[in-house]
Amino acid sequence: MNTTKERDVTFLSKEDLSSRELSLVAEEPLSIMVQGRPYSASMRTPGDEKAQVVGFCFTEALIDGLEDFDSCIVEEKNQNLVRVMLKPSRYQAVENILTKKGFVTQSSSAISPREMVADLMQGLRPSNHVLTLSFDRAMKLLDGLPGVQPLRKTTGASHAAAIYDSNDNPLAVAEDVGRHNALDKVIGKVLLENSQEDACIAVLSSRVSYDMVKKAARAGLAMVLSVSRPTAMAVELAGKLNMTLACLGKKEGLFVFCGKNRFG
Q1: Nearest CA-CA partner of 243 in 226, 161, 148
Q2: pLDDT at 121 over 80
Q3: Domains, the chain, with CATH or none
Q4: pTM to 2 decimal places
């Protein structure tokens, strides 16, 4: 499946009215079936289907590692469908996750931010990663993100997520029309390549919401650098998890929202 689709468009300016062809980022549905039953459906950019599903299952706590899979198969005739079978013991351990809706969508009563953060932290461990990153190194990682975004260069409409080790060596990069998908894909790649123990820094092209922080924490990442600002809930959750959260600021600077002790 192609990650881009060509379309004829009209270009309009004060001097010109013409027709030309542009590359647009592809967007197709991905359905995940677990134990033979539908579990999740989302729109994503085709490619890295297995990595995305592995990352999704990991960040959703359906698995703790690849050994929890009995199988994870991308359909040959329909790559928009991935079938996951968990080992019987793992299925029994996560059956409650498979049968209940998410915390936010299932509650009809008012929830305080404190209660929500406490719920989101269930099953997550605060980071104890000892990491020191200089301002120049952080800016280099952020400035280098466009260079690993060929899909964005072609279409101007994709998100990216990259994971690095403590020495700024790239472990994996992924692009997708959805920011959550890009993060799931890159985490899945790290798991599939058995480099999770080295993963500690994520660089994101998007804003950071609380669920992105949860995914990063689930993957054991100590620092998240982003192009856009995080939400208030993301900052609160990251702070509770001892995660460093920073984004590009004004005048070539950084806004550090929590975990400033890791900058030095």
Answers
A1: 226
A2: no
A3: 135-262 (3.40.140.10)
A4: 0.87
